[in-house]
Amino acid sequence: MVIQQPSNQIKLTNVSLVRLKKGKKRFEIACYKNKVMEWRQGIETDLDNVLQIPNVFLNVSKGQTAPTSELQKAFGKDMSTDDIILEILRKGELQVGEKERTAQLERVHAEVISIVASKLVDPRTKRVYTPGMIEKALEMLSSQAHSNSSGEKDSKSGTGTPATGEGDEAKPLPPPPAATKQHMWTGVVATKSAKSQALDAMKALVAHQPIPITRARMKLRITCSTNVLKQAVKAPKKPAGAADEGEQKAHGTVKDKILSFVEQVESQDVVGSEWEVVGFVEPGAFKVLSDFIGSETKGQGKVEVLDMAVTHED
């Protein structure tokens, strides 16, 4: 026997909602899981694969569609239903279930750990750490950050135990180091990209050193015309208002400056009228080095990346 459903009842399962509050009303659209993010990233372009049904709702779970009068009042009479759906897709807040949030957070967490593990090494052996060791080190920083945060709250509320000197007069606690403020790590979140969080995690690990750790060096090939190698490099200009000490002194040669960026030279040679050096550079110095070569050699020098992260693996 076939069970008939009321023709006006909309049943939506396996649904993710995108909600947008406009005026005093909240509007919803029903989408397929994971497709909204792909559409926002430009991976998915077919709206039929994103929307479960091309309608705007006041309440998806109750199947309550938004009246045309409400849509026109909130979005204006010039906007069609398709335009309203696109605006909700672009600006709305994606609602997902607890399981989906957990799964998404786990995916981002695994990606962050993978990126960090591939970019950091033991400074003594230049060997990479296992993802498990990176994860434990970040957990240590996260626990420390939450502990410090709780301590600051207790101190502000007066429930903490202040440091005291002679007598009963309390002395203020010393301010935390600058690195602690700038490179705090509190854990992975699902609202930021894995790459940006991996960069934050690397900065925190290098700043706090829960384990001996450093950024893996880049391997570069730098070439430059011999005509400019011996040219003097002027010291950087002083800011306005600084004391004038006469003509700026030379700051070494172009070759000296280039070699100052290279932590370890692997090879160095002159072939004809071109000088070439292959060596290892700290990633943070790469942009400064590239800008220097671009400005000082006037097109007669270049930097080539041979390896983004040089590591030794077991």
From TrEMBL:
The keyword Transmembrane helix does not apply. Residues 111-216 form the Ribosome maturation protein SDO1/SBDS central domain. It is found in: Cytoplasm; Nucleus. Residues 248-308 form the Ribosome maturation protein SDO1/SBDS C-terminal domain. InterPro entries: Ribosome_mat_SBDS_N_sf (IPR036786), Sdo1/SBDS (IPR002140), Sdo1/SBDS-like (IPR039100), SDO1/SBDS_C (IPR046928), SDO1/SBDS_central (IPR018978), Sdo1/SBDS_central_sf (IPR037188), SDO1/SBDS_N (IPR019783). One of its GO terms (cellular component) is nucleus. It comes from the Eukaryota. Residues 14-101 form the Ribosome maturation protein SDO1/SBDS N-terminal domain. Pfam families: SBDS_C, SBDS_domain_II, SBDS_N. Coiled coil: none annotated. Gene3D superfamilies: 3.30.70.240, Ribosome maturation protein SBDS, N-terminal domain (3.30.1250.10), SBDS protein C-terminal domain, subdomain 1 (1.10.10.900). Keywords: Cytoplasm, Nucleus, Ribosome biogenesis. Residues 142-181 are annotated as: Disordered. GO terms for biological process: cytosolic ribosome assembly. Its main location: cytoplasm. Belongs to the SDO1/SBDS family. Associates with the 60S ribosomal subunit. NCBIfam families: RNA_SBDS. This is Ribosome maturation protein SDO1. It comes from Echria macrotheca. The lineage of its organism: Eukaryota, Fungi, Dikarya, Ascomycota, Pezizomycotina.
